[in-house]
Amino acid sequence: MTPGSLSSKKQLLDAFSTSLPLPSGTEPQLLGALCQVLQLPGSLVRAQLVYQMACAYQAGEDRAQDLAIAIEYFHSASLLFDDLPCMDNAEERRGALCVHQVYGEAAAILAALGLINRAYALVWRALRGYAVEAQADALAYLEKCLGVAGLLNGQSQDLYYAGLSPDGLSSEMVALNKTVPLIRLSLVLPALVGGASALELQLLDRLAVFWGLSYQILDDLKDICQKPEQSGKTADRDATMHRPNVALAIGAKNALLRIERLMRLADRVVARLTLRQPALSFLDKVRRRFRDEIIAVRSVEPVRSL
Predict the structure, then answer these.
(1) Could you give all domains of the chain from N- to C-terminal order, each with its CATH number?
(2) Is residue 302 predicted with pLDDT exceeding 70?
(3) pLDDT of residue 2
(4) DSSP letter string over 180-235?
(5) Is the Cβ–Cβ distance between 127 and 193 less than 8 Å?
(6) Residue 99's pLDDT band (cuts 50, 70, 90)
């Protein structure tokens, strides 16, 4: 199977819905919450990146799939938490009512914990057979990205952004702490366990920063430019909730210019990586798909005036 092919995308879609066993005795509200998540996988952008990276570093399809679904489960769990009334108080996600709107906050929280538990199990299964040192490095990196020094701190900065001092963190710095960690896991973790060189890991980390920030700024633009039926989630939340949004902070035009600069930097990194490691040539296709999405957002007028 060729990494990134239509068959591998279908494989990941199937794996996303089936990699978390649901026992027959599962309480109905929790069961419903989990089923909704597993039936609405989203774009699987991160899962595809993980799968392709792992295959590029000779992980094998089974390991690559386990690692890919694990990262996607971590991401899906973060969205369940993010949508809660105590956080973003969102109504829609992936074109449907948020899980907590349908099954209640408690079921949404428990479903998120279920996804996280299963994600760790899949990571451990994917790492089985690697050298002990490689396993330790991978788990330490996972904790760094998802723990208090990573995603958790970024989410807290996002929630309490309005209370920061005027000379506090910028919107982009919050994005660096909140959005970039999962992109780092998608690009760096498979290469780390696959024995990538120190230079390759450094380049992949840079690429994660450039793509992660671009992705978040694009998401910020969608929040102000797209209606729920276009984005599949509640719109105009950042201004309403006083959350960091690069497009609101510097304007839509400057936000697009910022994305273009980040993408130019990312393109240089991709060129260096593919020169060193031809198996990473799929990154150029990812870059082109991302640019298509930027063009689509650029053509839409903002819903709110900036």
Answers:
(1) 1-129 (1.10.600.10), 131-306 (1.10.600.10)
(2) no
(3) 43
(4) HHHHHHHHHHHHHHTT--HHHHHHHHHHHHHHHHHHHHHHHHHHHH--HHHHSS--
(5) yes
(6) very high
Alpha helices in the chain (DSSP H): 6-18, 28-39, 45-56, 61-83, 99-103, 105-127, 132-146, 151-159, 171-178, 180-193, 198-225, 228-231, 237-241, 246-250, 252-276, 282-298
Mean pLDDT over the full length of the chain: 88
3-state secondary structure of 120: helix
Question: What's the CA gap between 211 and 209, in Å, rounded?
Answer: 6
Please report, as a single letter, which amino acid is at residue 278: P
Output DSSP code: residue 147: S
* Residue 64 CB burial class (10 angstroms; 0-12, 13-18, ≥19): buried
116: amino acid identity, one letter: I
Token pair for 275: 């020169």
Give the mean model confidence (pLDDT) for residues 22-28: 96
pLDDT at 234: 57
Cβ(123)–Cβ(192) below 8 Å: no
Collect all residues with Cβ–Cβ distance below 8 Å to 165 and sequence separation of at least 6.
Answer: none
What does the pLDDT look like over 27-43, one tens digit per residue? 999 999 999 999 999 88
Look at the pTM and tell me if it is higher than 0.70: yes
Cβ(245)–Cβ(175) below 8 Å: no
Q: Which two tokens stand for residue 61?
A: 């399809």
Instruction: Specify the DSSP element, H or E, that contains 96.
Output: strand 96-97
Cβ atoms within 10 A of the Cβ of 59, count? 23
Confidence of residue 298 (pLDDT cuts 50, 70, 90): low
Q: What is the dihedral angle through the alpha carbons of 57, 14, 205, 216, rounded to the nearest 10 degrees?
A: 160
